[in-house]
Amino acid sequence: MEEVTKVRPAAVELSDLDTLEAESIHIIREVVAEFEHPVMLFSGGKDSVLMLHLARKAFAPAPVPFPIMHVDTGHNFPEVIEFRDRTVAELGLRIEVASVQELIDAGQIKVAHELESRNRHQTVALLEGIQNGGFDAVFGGGRRDEDKARAKERVLSFRDKFGQWDPKNQRPELWRLYNGRHRKGEHIRVFPISDWTELDVWRYLAREQVDLPQIYFAHEREVVEVEGLLMAVNEFFPLPEGSDSERRMVRYRTVGDATATGAVASEASDYEDVIAETAISRITERGATRGDDRFSEAAMEDRKKEGYF
After folding, report:
1. Which pTM value belongs to this model?
2. What's the chain's average pLDDT?
């Protein structure tokens, strides 16, 4: 009898980006299978665009099986809102908007003046949006290289019935086993891109040729330097008295509340140039451009304990 030789299939070596993609898609699928009412936070920023792209891949050719939520401060860059609305229309997504302005109008949020930064007020709108929607899992775009508080998170991060986070009471995630157990009224924050870095995000988006708001690439804008930040002069940030503005080539590394988010001087007009800039940067995007985060290491952790994403 002729002996049959068994041939083992060659091992497939995944690139670092393929490995990150596979891990994130696995997390998204696991959460959809385990939870009843998940939602994905989507601001139009690069990390949320990445998460949405991964979610579409996870369930293709079916549509994304959960809604997206935008926590809208009312102080948005118009390019980002236009991108958000266009994305929702093109992909047929369900969107929930948690509006900070509506809560201000209702007296639930107090602001000192209309142009006050609303970054810290997002927590109230977020928690109300989660409660009103009955969501038990909330996908967020936190990465471990953003700041020390983000690095303390687990992939599945428990929140109590008040939406609060206790960094000392995190569940172990040995061997990639995730514990989503929670009671009614509690919920889990899910961070599928926890192991990604800013450079990973840019390299992957470039590889996949994912569309982004043009604010992320170099463009000319009227700015004024305030405490080391290049702030765009607009309806949300009028020119400070006694200051001079100038037209400069800038881009944004992160997009948040327009009253507190600065640009960086840049000539990077495409993915390749942005990747080259990011590769040599030694400061996080939040540390470089977010006025309310850059001066206090404890700022983000305190806000997260209160329920911030």
Report:
1. 0.90
2. 88
